[in-house]
Amino acid sequence: MYPKIIQNLIDQFAKLPSIGPKTAERLVFYLLNQPQSQLYQFGEAIEHIKDQIKICQTCFNFSDTNPCQICADKRRDKHSLCIVAKPQDLAIIEKSKTFSGLYHILGGNINPLEDTEINKIKIAELINRLKNQPIKEIILALNPDIPGETTTLYLCKLLKQFPQIKISRLARGLPTGADLEYADEVTLENAFRGRQQL
């Protein structure tokens, strides 16, 4: 139906999450109607994303520096650690301006339905970090769904080896089954204020 180069680009867009063939087609035709200079900027941004983005070796966030800006910031509370599943969760918490401590990104959750292996997420790195940093409080900011709850229960048992650390979780201001990534700032602020010790 379309020239090979257009069909190839439609196929590439359709591989992205939440993009079906029709949306991919609309995106391609949108791009075809843009000035060449904007297409060069778009292509350059995609081309260099893997070259210029690093993974912070402390918290495992995507960054252009290592350590990332949050881990390197001397004004952050070094005694408080918020554990999240993915970088998008960190970003939405930062937008709420509610938390001023450090983060640890697991890189996923334990999902009993998908048989996720525990060694594929950053739990060993978390334990190592707790042995070497003066953390006094851990806030578990994981989604209130089955994988998030499974990970929370596993971490609670595992973190009992650190009795000096207070463990809390976000309050139930977040609806069950919701994604932290899509929560608004007010809901997150209330969730942080109402967090409960486990």
Describe the structure.
The protein has 8 helices and 7 strands. It is elongated. It has 198 residues and is α/β, with parallel strands linked by helices. The chain folds into 2 domains: 4-52, Helicase, Ruva Protein, domain 3 (Orthogonal Bundle), CATH 1.10.8; 62-197, 3-Layer(aba) Sandwich (Dna Topoisomerase Vi A Subunit, Chain: A, domain 2), CATH 3.40.1360.10. The termini are far apart. The protein has helices at 4-14, 21-32, 36-52, 69-72, 87-96, 123-132, 146-158, 185-193; strands spanning 54-55, 62-63, 77-84, 101-105, 137-140, 166-169, 196-197. Strands 4-3-5-6-7 form a 5-stranded mixed β-sheet. A two-stranded antiparallel sheet has the order 1-2.
Q: Characterize the main sheet.
A: 5 strands, mixed
How many beta-strand elements?
Answer: 7
Distance between the termini: 59 Å
Mean pLDDT: 91
The CATH first-level class of the largest domain comes to Alpha Beta
Low-confidence stretches: none
Shape descriptor reads elongated
CATH-level-2 architecture of the largest domain: 3-Layer(aba) Sandwich
Write the layout of secondary structure elements.
Elements: H1 4-14, H2 21-32, H3 36-52, E1 54-55, E2 62-63, H4 69-72, E3 77-84, H5 87-96, E4 101-105, H6 123-132, E5 137-140, H7 146-158, E6 166-169, H8 185-193, E7 196-197
Parallel strand pairs: 3-4, 3-5, 5-6
Antiparallel strand pairs: 1-2, 6-7
